[in-house]
Amino acid sequence: MIPVADWEKNLPKDLPPITIDPTVALTRPMTIKAYDYWQSARAGRAMPARKDIAPQAMRAFVGHVALVELRAGEGGKIDYVMRLAGARIEDAFGAITGRALPEFMPPRIEARWRMVMDKVIASAAPLRAASRVSFGGKTWLQAEVVLAPLGDGGTVSMLFGAIELWPVDANAPA
Questions:
Q1: Is the CB of residue 31 less than 8 Å from the CB of residue 143?
Q2: Cα separation, 78 vs 59, whole angstroms
Q3: Which of 13, 39, 53, 146 has the most C-beta neighbours closer than 10 Å?
Q4: Structural domains of the chain in order of their starting residue, each with its CATH number
Q5: CA 61 vs CA 36, 57, 79, 84, 128: distances in Å
Q6: What are the C-alpha distances in Å from 45 to residues 48, 56, 100?
Q7: pLDDT tens figures, 125-171
Q8: Alpha-carbon distance 72 to 63, whole Å?
Q9: Neighbour count for residue 74 (Cβ, 10 Å)
Q10: β-strand pairing of 78-85 with 155-167
Q11: Are 72 and 78 in contact (CB under 8 A)?
């Protein structure tokens, strides 16, 4: 796990804690299937290219999949645009396909998503993130996310992700 001081120090303290795991020790069936698919698509390379990802090969978990486009933003900042958000993702977060993070995320929550995506780009490696959902009052949902790079020649050009959401006792500690 990554120490809190290295990544969470500037995030809002009143949001549920988030666990970042670069060892990608997944526990949920859909994120495991998505990660196994990403591993097979990379075929021994550091990462698969976007062209290596085929929706028809993801039938068992496609509702949990997200493809995130990277665009050059102002001041060298990356803009993250949801090119594809599966049905299970849109059930929780609304119609987000084709939208950039700031178009559907409040700034405090966007900062958390951005932090996770930035880590995948910086390391050019997959990671696991887990937290209670803090979006739209859905704090009764727990989430496990796998996020992995896509690109050619070692340069990350997109992100491949999957999320599994499940209900937890709203009164239980995050």
A1: no
A2: 30
A3: 146
A4: 4-167 (3.30.450.20)
A5: 11, 9, 26, 13, 17
A6: 7, 22, 29
A7: 999 999 887 666 556 688 999 999 999 888 999 999 999 999 887 55
A8: 28
A9: 6
A10: unpaired
A11: yes
Q: At 172, is the pLDDT very low, low, confident or very high (cuts 50, 70, 90)? A: low
Task: Quote the Cα angle for 128-134-135, to 5°.
Answer: 110
The tokens for 91 are 């059930």
What is the Cα gyration radius of the chain? 15
pLDDT (tens digit per residue) in 80-125: 999 999 999 998 889 999 999 999 988 888 888 899 999 999 999 9
SS3 content of the chain, % helix, strand, coil (to 5): 35, 30, 35
- DSSP 3-state of 120: helix
Q: Letter for the amino acid at 136?
A: G
Length of the chain: 174
Of 144, 146, 141, 145, which is closest to residue 174 (Cα–Cα)? 141
